[in-house]
Design brief:
48% of the residues lie in helices and 13% in strands. The protein is an alpha/beta fold. Helix 5 packs parallel to helix 7.
């Protein structure tokens, strides 16, 4: 599964253009905004916001012991991401403000699961590593909770009923 990690500016530049709708027709897009600051609204047109291939989420780039004023990534967020992806039929683009920590953690976890464990797709995994290995600084809370949910679902799928 092709997984791209982008900064917010990528979508700001194509907002309201035919390219925006083309991407949403061919990709699943996970948009991560913060709870305060200059990226509290998704960088998409009204038409794009109605797309079933767009998942808008709000959580801050913080770790577990962060102050209560911040919105932390949760188990429900991890479940929402995996429910949204649901299969490996479409490429995925994940974005946050800089495309480094929050989206990096989501991208890395999804790449690890879909390309290394589920499908053994070495070509897509190597592509992900070439593009992002030096650039990403995955948020540890996001990655840990998402990997926990991935593991839980994997165990459910291989357990006898």
């Amino acid at each position: 599964m092709k997984i791209d990690v982008k900064p917010r500016s990528y979508f700001e530049e194509i907002k309201g253009t035919p390219t925006e709708m083309e991407i949403l027709a061919t990709h699943r897009v996970i948009s991560i905004e913060s709870s305060n600051g200059n990226d509290t609204e998704p960088p998409f047109s009204q038409e794009a916001l109605a797309s079933p291939n767009l998942l808008c989420m709000v959580f801050d780039d913080v770790i577990e012991d962060a102050d209560e004023q911040f919105v932390k990534f949760s188990e429900a967020d991890a479940k929402a991401i995996l429910d949204f992806i649901c299969d490996d039929s479409m490429p995925v683009i994940v974005h946050c403000s800089a495309g480094i920590a929050r989206s990096g953690a989501v991208g890395e976890a999804l790449d690890s699961y879909y390309n290394c464990f589920r499908t053994q797709n070495d070509e897509d995994h190597q592509c992900f590593l070439r593009h992002y290995q030096q650039r990403l600084r995955p948020n540890s809370l996001v990655k840990r909770l998402l990997m926990r949910e991935i593991y839980a679902r994997s165990v459910e799928n291989i357990s006898p009923t």
